[in-house]
Specification:
Helix content is about 25%, strand content about 35%. It starts with a helix and ends with a helix. A hairpin with a 3-residue loop joins β16 and β17. It is elongated. The protein has about 400 residues and is of the alpha+beta class.
Length: about 400
């Protein structure tokens, strides 16, 4: 009997030694109706309770599915429950012990300036919550080197972030993804500006688009393709012809390392429209085009992307035209014949009337002109032949005498 009393007293003494913050071992005895685990605290003869919320930091963790009766866990004492007269028990936590050990490891193994790879577990109003073994936080201003409107896009991603502050006492771990991006960008700038030259043609990926152009990633550094340099066709919005992530060839137009600016062109990597028109539409070719502009001296007709030719007022119609606007209107589709093409000077002469049948009166005038030209030619031939002895009077006869 004395032996049993001694064991009981020893157990009570051990129980009184349990303090908040102590690490104890607990054996799973049973799961109650509230899905809590009732454990026996090793070496004390006292029980403790692990609420479901104190089991794991993972929101979807299920203690009843992951544990079984008889499992022994390392736990931290949170507080005492009930009075000594009632026997008393303790509120225990596995989650908080893991967090404490993680904080100890973070503080031991890392310092401000170190870079960690951390998964983003939540996007909140002020930034991103990450799992670094402990709860870490990336403020919104430290996510990118530009403004980000939608933080939810980062949820589920693993990002590289630099430690800004470690404070285990306040469970405070602040990180910066922007610091990593800035460091990587500085390295990329040195590499890109050290290898690129004006006139180079390289490949890049469309990173993002604005109304005035598209930014192309050349390997950690973005260059700008102005909307006017996307295509020889007129482009209203870059998004009409490009998409984010698309790989494109670009020509380097300008480099400004001091301002970290690179000017690029997509259209200059493609055959120019004037080069193509010279081979595809030589003199005499019939084309279809759109009237773009009307002037006092003629009409400019677009026959291909980036190529406009002039239909001079004299080439619009066989009839007399006072003003091109009398017979043509902007936006109208017309057929034209190529009279001449000069790719170097980017000049294209076109005719509409060359594709129309000439009036009978014009044909008669042309025939009379041809006859007169033929008579003159005969006169020259005959008078040039001295051996035959023909004179102009012999050829023209009485008409000449008169």
């Amino acid at each position: 009997m004395n032996e049993e009393n001694n064991e009981l007293l020893a157990a009570l003494d051990a129980a009184t030694d349990i303090k908040v913050g102590d690490v104890v071992k607990g054996e799973i005895l049973v799961f109650d109706d509230q899905r809590q685990a009732i454990v026996g605290i090793e070496g004390t003869g006292v029980e403790g309770v692990i609420p479901a919320r104190e089991y794991s930091s993972k929101p979807d963790a299920d203690m009843t599915a992951e544990l079984k009766i008889g499992d022994v866990l390392d736990l931290v004492v949170i507080r005492k429950i009930g009075s000594d007269k009632e026997g008393g028990s303790y509120l225990l936590s596995k989650k908080r012990l893991e967090a404490r050990l993680a904080w100890d490891k973070i503080e031991k193994d890392h310092k401000p300036g170190d870079v960690l790879e951390v998964p983003v577990i939540q996007a909140v109003r002020g930034g991103l919550v990450v799992d670094a073994g402990v709860r870490g936080f990336i403020p919104a201003s430290m996510i990118e080197n530009r403004f980000v409107s939608d933080l939810n896009q980062y949820k589920g991603q693993t990002v590289r972030a630099q430690i800004v502050e470690i404070d285990p006492a306040d469970n405070r771990l602040i990180l910066s993804r922007r610091a990593v991006i800035d460091a990587e960008r500085s390295e990329a700038i040195e590499k890109v500006f050290g290898t690129l030259n004006e006139g180079d043609v390289v490949e890049g990926k469309v990173a993002r688009m604005t109304d005035f152009g598209a930014f192309v990633d050349l390997g950690g550094v973005d260059g700008l393709v102005h909307v006017s340099e996307i295509s020889y066709d007129r482009v209203s919005k870059p998004a009409d012809v490009l998409k984010a992530g698309e790989t494109v060839k670009v020509k380097v137009l300008g480099l400004d390392k001091e301002k970290q600016r690179i000017s690029l062109s997509i259209k200059q990597t493609q055959p120019g429209p004037w080069e193509k028109i010279a081979t595809e539409a030589p003199e005499g070719t019939v084309l279809e085009g759109t009237v773009k502009r009307l002037t006092d001296f003629g009409a400019f007709v677009q026959v291909a992307a980036g190529v406009e030719g002039l239909v001079h007022i004299s080439q619009i119609s066989h009839k007399h035209v006072e003003s091109p606007a009398e017979v043509l209107k902007s936006g109208e589709t017309v057929k034209v014949k190529v009279l001449s093409v000069d790719p170097a000077a980017q000049r294209l002469s076109l005719s509409i009337k060359a594709l129309e049948e000439r009036p009978a009166s014009e044909k008669k005038e042309d025939k009379q002109t041809d006859n007169k030209q033929a008579s003159s030619s005969e006169i020259k031939n005959y008078t040039a032949d001295e051996e035959e002895g023909f004179t102009i009077g012999d050829i023209l006869g009485d008409d000449f005498s008169k």
